């Protein structure tokens, strides 16, 4: 049994579109855990209405991906709603579970904390063999989960985090990422295959030399989570997948990519990516460079601190003068 974990924050329309896609997966044994990170716009109300078959059921996906959403699934859809307290305190549910579990987090403590609620709930269920962390602003090919499970079962050694081929939702023929490379001296990341037209060049037998799996699709086994632990929650945003990956490597777990599992990602819908990078996103991106480097590559810290001079000059060039104070705060308080 695979437990698919979706994290919603405000963007309930994206989540409903994702649910319609996920519920068409051809893998026979999965459940969905949807956590709402204390959205301020009654997201769960709208999602529950959708499950009942009430309200506006019309969705407007990219026409190139409409087949992944339509025809809409039959309603009503059975679901069970839990508070965070109930999800974390109730022992294994012995009654038959519906295909969808919704959980209200109660507060927004970031990407890792929200997903950890779902992971913790999944691990309480003895039927849970795998967990798939999937961004809510995605659509999936119908065999995406089948391919992940098949890849994992055929793998040798300790396969930890397994990723999918991520393609842009608005340009489905263009790759967002296969996996990622990390430069410890600059604390920068690079997407393998990023912004390259997908011609199958990254499909088997190609094996990428990657340092981490991009967080929009992370497939893990129960054994991995029980050994490595939950994601660290103090990052709030960014670097969670890097941290999870490197903690796994310290315990002998590898990473892999299943390029036959295709996921279409809108990218950054929950953090207002249209502004390139919001102040919130900028803060955590910079702060977490220091947090991550201190934990895993302290020898590189002098260069990371030096790189903040270049960051400050860049923000000045953009006219983002208010962010200079933010940068100083990060340097002296992290």
Automatic annotation (TrEMBL):
Coiled-coil annotated residue ranges, if any: none
Alphabetical keyword list: Glycosyltransferase, Membrane, Transferase, Transmembrane, Transmembrane helix
Protein name per its UniProtKB record: Glycosyltransferase family 2 protein
Family: Belongs to the glycosyltransferase 2 family.
Database matches in SUPFAM superfamilies: Nucleotide-diphospho-sugar transferases (SSF53448)
Lineage: Bacteria, Pseudomonadati, Bacteroidota, Cytophagia, Cytophagales
InterPro entries noted in UniProt: Nucleotide-diphossugar_trans (IPR029044)
Membrane-spanning segments: 296-316
A molecular function GO annotation: glycosyltransferase activity
Organism: Pontibacter diazotrophicus
């Amino acid at each position: 049994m695979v437990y698919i974990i979706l994290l919603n924050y405000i963007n309930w329309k994206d989540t409903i579109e994702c649910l319609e896609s996920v519920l068409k997966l051809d893998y026979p044994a999965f459940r969905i855990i949807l956590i709402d990170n204390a959205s301020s716009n009654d997201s769960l109300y709208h999602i529950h209405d959708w499950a009942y078959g009430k309200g506006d059921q019309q969705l407007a996906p990219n026409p190139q991906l409409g087949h992944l959403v339509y025809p809409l699934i039959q309603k009503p859809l059975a679901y069970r709603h839990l508070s965070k307290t109930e999800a974390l305190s109730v022992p294994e549910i012995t009654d038959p579970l519906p295909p969808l579990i919704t959980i209200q987090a109660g507060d927004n403590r970031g990407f890792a904390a929200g997903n950890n609620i779902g992971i913790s709930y999944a691990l309480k269920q003895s039927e849970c063999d795998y967990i798939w962390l999937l961004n809510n602003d995605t659509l999936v090919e119908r065999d995406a989960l089948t391919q992940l499970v098949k890849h994992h079962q055929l793998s040798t050694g300790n396969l930890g985090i397994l990723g999918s081929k991520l393609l842009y939702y608005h340009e489905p023929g263009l790759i967002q990422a296969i996996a990622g490379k990390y430069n410890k001296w600059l604390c920068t990341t690079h997407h393998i295959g990023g912004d390259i037209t997908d011609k199958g060049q990254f499909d088997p037998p190609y094996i990428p030399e990657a340092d981490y799996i991009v967080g929009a699709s992370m497939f893990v086994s129960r054994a991995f989570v029980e050994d490595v632990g939950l994601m660290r929650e103090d990052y709030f945003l960014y670097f969670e997948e890097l941290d999870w990956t490197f903690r796994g490597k310290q315990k002998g777990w590898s990473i892999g990519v299943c390029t036959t599992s295709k996921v279409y990602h809108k990218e950054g819908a929950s953090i207002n990516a249209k502004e390139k990078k919001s102040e919130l996103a900028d803060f955590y991106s910079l702060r977490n460079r220091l947090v991550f480097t201190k934990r895993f590559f302290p020898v590189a810290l002098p260069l990371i601190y030096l790189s903040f001079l270049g960051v400050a000059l860049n923000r000045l060039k953009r006219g983002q003068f208010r962010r200079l104070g933010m940068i100083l705060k990060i340097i002296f308080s992290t």
